[in-house]
Write a structure and sequence with these properties.
Distance between the termini: 71 Å
Helix content: 25-40%
Number of strands: 3
CATH topology of the domain at 49-116: Ribosomal Protein L30, Chain: A
Radius of gyration: 29 Å
CATH class of the domain at 49-116: Alpha Beta
CATH superfamily of the domain at 49-116: Ribosomal protein L7/L12, C-terminal domain/Adaptor protein ClpS
Shape: elongated
Bound molecules: L-tyrosinamide
Number of helices: 3
Structural class: alpha+beta
Strand content: 15-25%
CATH architecture of the domain at 49-116: 2-Layer Sandwich
Strand order of the largest sheet: 2-1-3
């Protein structure tokens, strides 16, 4: 057999398209990332935490204006619970930590929980 000097094969960069030419084919790709699962942070009613403290919590940790904070607090007071905000998992967990810590430091039994949004 006779060895032939050949040039190394280069990858063919030209998209092969019926009809040839220099057309570029763009494939539709399925979306690979999903939106993150979201968690709602909920405050629970109790008989001891002062209304004013809850209003301040809603203003400070959930960025509510005073009027909105008061409405949410009253809703919790009447209905037993209320959503304060919806966040990604880590942010929601941090809110729960911050609120619980502030409540305990002030000597209040306020309960704050995060739950997945369906
Ligand atoms: N029920 C409380 C009171 O009458 C007020 C309150 C509101 C407490 C909301 C907790 O998440 C709460 N002082």
């Amino acid at each position: 057999m006779i060895a032939m000097a050949t040039t190394p094969k280069q990858p063919d960069l030209t998209p092969s398209v019926p009809g040839g030419g220099d057309a570029v084919v763009l494939e539709r790709r399925r979306q690979r990332v999903q939106p993150p699962k979201m968690y709602q942070v909920v405050l629970l009613n109790d008989d001891f935490t002062p209304m004013e403290f809850v209003v301040r919590v809603l203003q400070e940790f959930f960025n509510k204006d005073r009027e909105t904070a008061t409405q949410i607090m009253l809703k919790i007071h009447v209905h037993g619970r209320g959503v304060c905000g919806v966040y990604t998992r880590d942010v929601a967990a941090t809110k729960v930590e911050q609120v619980t810590q502030a409540a305990r430091a002030a000597g209040h039994p306020l309960q704050c929980v995060a739950e997945p949004v369906e």
